[in-house]
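Schema walk-through. Below, the input block comes first and the output block second. Nothing else is stored per chain. Lengths vary across the set, and this one has 336 residues.
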Amino acid sequence: MTGRLWRSLWVAGLLFLQVNPGYGRQIPCRDPLSLWHDRPVKQAIVNFVRQVIDPADAAYVPPRDRIVTIDMDGTLLCERPSSVGMVFAESLLEELAEAPQLLGRQPFDAARQDRLNALRKEHFELFFGMSGAGLEEDAVRQKVRTLARQGRHPRFDRPYGELFYGPMLQLVSYLVQNDFIVYVLSGSDQTVVRTLCAERPEFAGMPPSRFIGTLVALDVDYGTSGPVFYRLARELEPVNLRKGKALNILYRIGQQPILAIGNSSGDCGMLASTLRSGYPATLRMLLNHDDAEREYAYPRASDSDAEICREQAGADILSISMRDDFEQVFPFDSGL
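--- output ---
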């Protein structure tokens, strides 16, 4: 090669690099699960996703069947000392209890006498329906927004809408980026679930049908501006807990998940639903609340939840440790 040709090639290379400054430079890949510690749970999630999105893998699942079901209360969102849905229901009861025409009627008397905790345990299946009876659905949505933005958690002194777990939100984004179809399930009132999740940008692009809670019975009147929906004093079966979650997956999604994540025995039916997906690769996980410093450590009795779920959904359920697997718990922990 002549000196003139060599110099020409050298100059051409310099010009190419100037026009393409990123060429030949190692660009670091951002870890999509950076809020998770590098432990077996994180690796299991990454491996599962790589398997099911790879058309060359025997475990490949087409995008239309990449169904994910995630519990909200205690899995995506802090549920202690009470779930946001229950805080909202109690606030509505206390507000309505001031009406004189409701004297002598339950659960409004209980609200006046500070007996809601006992009533909730005795009549949980009626609690959400009774709390908003007679209210227009639009008014209920606005009250949920107000609670999410202005209500304060008694321990963390942050708005309830900020109490989603950062690592779980990051996991949702990671799954969506890989063409998974994410559904959020909760035993709470469906209007609470939809309105609360809509406050988070991670869920902003999802249609309301992806958020499945316990249904409160509605009726409708027709006025000059169109239909007005208002609440009746009852819930619709099945309440979205335990086997009710498995039934609602069938009724309202129509497909079984390949990935399900919960945190209690109330989620066992949802986890077991993965066994009917028809695909060889499925993943079931339970979030273990074992971090009293950054959130809450649930009583050891919660270990029995995992045993119940393993009886129903298989022994290979992965346990997520909030203490050991989460780099941070809440987005505000790091100022994000």
